[in-house]
Design the sequence.
């Protein structure tokens, strides 16, 4: 049975989850506004750059999140995903904290042009516009395309991947992605670069793996 929402309990959880010494005055206002928000309410937050909007919002939203609820963060550019991933990593306690289990997982969503493994080879030979990658995906025979009759045998068909094995494989991919994002940066690489590397090592199509992870 779902427990009734309690502001004081949520506030305690937020402060415990907050990874810095203490919220500043602007962050306190943001946290209180989010925790006081009624169900299906709408809140507009405006604060200066560097005021800590991201960590205050994430901490408050996660503290009042129900087990089966998802938090969707929409950014205008891929580079704006970086601070969201950075603050999430601090909330979960980095790599070591994530290993303890019970922490909220994250799934940055990247476009097909960033994850298509055929596109770089096509662009080496032609002046192909990356914006038209969806046309490339539908017109070329690609063994990485999952469960497609028109594209011949896919990776999943070749290995006779059962739904149970596929689910296990996707779970492993999600955990590997989260552990990589929560870990310390090496050689100055960004969190988004880590995602490219992880999907790039997959024998299947990263874009469609990502779609399966979303569902």
Sequence:
């Amino acid at each position: 049975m779902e427990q009734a929402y309690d502001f004081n309990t949520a506030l305690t959880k937020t402060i415990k989850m907050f990874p810095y010494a203490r919220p500043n005055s602007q962050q306190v206002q943001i946290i209180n506004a989010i925790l006081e928000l009624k169900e299906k309410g709408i809140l507009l937050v405006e604060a200066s750059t560097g005021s800590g909007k991201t960590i205050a919002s994430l901490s408050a939203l996660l503290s009042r999140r129900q087990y089966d609820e998802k938090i969707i963060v929409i950014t205008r550019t891929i580079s704006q995903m970086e601070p969201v991933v950075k603050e999430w990593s601090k909330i979960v306690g980095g790599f070591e904290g994530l290993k303890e289990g019970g922490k909220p997982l994250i799934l940055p969503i990247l476009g097909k042009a960033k994850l298509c493994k055929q596109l770089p080879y096509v662009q080496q030979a032609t002046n192909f516009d990356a914006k038209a990658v969806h046309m490339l995906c539908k017109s070329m025979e690609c063994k990485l395309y999952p469960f497609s009759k028109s594209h011949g045998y896919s990776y999943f068909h070749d290995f006779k991947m059962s739904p149970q094995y596929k689910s296990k494989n996707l779970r492993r991919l999600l955990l590997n992605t989260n552990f990589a994002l929560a870990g310390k940066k090496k050689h100055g690489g960004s969190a988004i670069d880590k995602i490219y590397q992880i999907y790039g090592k997959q024998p299947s199509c990263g874009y469609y793996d990502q779609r399966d992870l979303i569902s």
Notes: The chain has two domains: 7-71, 112-214. Confidence is low (pLDDT under 50) at residues 147-160.
